[in-house]
Every structure is written in structure tokens, then in C-alpha cells.
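Write out this protein's structure.
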Amino acid sequence: MENFYALILGIIEGLTEFLPVSSTGHMILGGTILGLEMNDFWRSFLIIIQLGSILAVIFVFWQRLIQGFDIWFKLAVGFFPTGLIGLFVERYLKELFNGYIVVTMLIIGGIIFIIIEKQHKNKSYKVTSLDKISFTKAFCIGIIQSLAMIPGTSRSGASIIGGLLLGLDRKSAAEFSFLLAIPTMIIATAYKIYKEPSLLSDANSLVPLSIGFITAFVVAVFVIKFFLKFITKFNFIPFGIYRIILGILFFYLYYSGILNSGNEF
């Protein structure tokens, strides 16, 4: 059954990593539905398979990434505040992996997306390409991205919201969010493996990890291409509504006792 669970979670990761709906939140909720006991392996699994999604970003944007070092410097600046804050709060994050926190952040994030879109309706954005993103804006987006350490917030959602607030148009905000995932998730995964090297030495764990990794990569490639086309025609309000509906649904399931919301992640 582990391989089946790995496949399902890999699909969820690929579908949600780059949509502003919280991939970690969805995997936690998915794990709850599957009845998984979120032990150290599965907690690490949720982080490591994100590398599959990151590989998808590199696959889609490889031409932009080899055009020069400018974009890499901006990504480094954007990652710095997230990495620094993460070093100080990492030990406390496990306490936040709770169903009620996830649904609360899903709802709050959904409301924020709707408010921002309503306030920015027909707004003329000054930053319409990655080249126009300043180092200052990249740093500020990184600060806002750090809020995604709270499960259910969404890394892509936080960084996209940060980009919109700082004057980036939807496409540029989404593209920078995708690319900012490269250093953020690679370093987060490397740190996790450094702390628990047994994950890659256990032959039994390599199979489900491989299944989750490959599945996340394939699904994420299609999702990235779809999302970039979607936001050229539509806004983020549908994602805000989805977050709110999903949050309310799972709040009911937890409150009614149908699903266990305990701090078991």
C-alpha cells in the first residue's frame, strides 16, 4: 500500500505545488483521507518529492535560466530571507502540522486573494517581465514567501500575493514564484536529507520515494503550462473561492469527527 499512497501523494504534489492552493496542505489533507500514520518517513516524503516538481520548473524554464546570471542573483536574494527565517523557526514547525491550522490558512489565503483581485481590478502593473523585477522586490517577495512555513498557506500563493502587492502583473508574479521554488525547495530538501540520511539508505523507502518523485514531475510539467495560460486570461479569484470552499468542507469534517484533525503530522 505504501507505493499506492506514494502515487496518490505524488499526483497531489504535482497538481498543487505551483497552484496557489497549498501543496503541503493538500497532501496533509490527502494523507488524512488515506488514513496514513504521518511518521518521520511520510513527513520527509512530503518534502523530498517536491524535488520532482522543482525539476519540472527547470524543464519548463530551462531557456530562461541559461540566459544569464541576473535571474539567479534575484532568486538568491529572494531565497535569503526565507532561508534565514527557516533556520530559526524550523524546530517549531512540526507543532503547526495540524488539520485545523491547515483549513484556517486555506480560508484566510482565499479571502486575501479575492480582496487583492478586487482592489487591483483593471490596475496597470509596472513590472511585466522577470527582467524588470528589482533586487529589492525579490527580497520582499522572499520575506512574504516565508509565511508559507505555516501549513495551508501555500508557498506559491504567498509569493504570488507578494508579487502582486509589489506591482508585478499576474504572469510575472507566477513565473517568479515558480523559479523561486528552485532554491527554496532544493535547499529545504537537502537540509532534510542531511538531518535524516537514513531516508536514502533504506532500500524500502527508495521505491515509494521514486514513485512520488516521478509522478510529481510529470504532473507538475502539465500544471505549470496550464497555469501560465490560465492567468493570461483569468484572475486568481477562482483559486481564492476554491481555497475557502475546501477549507470550510474540511473544517466540517474535522469538527464533526469524520476525519481526525489531531497533531499527528
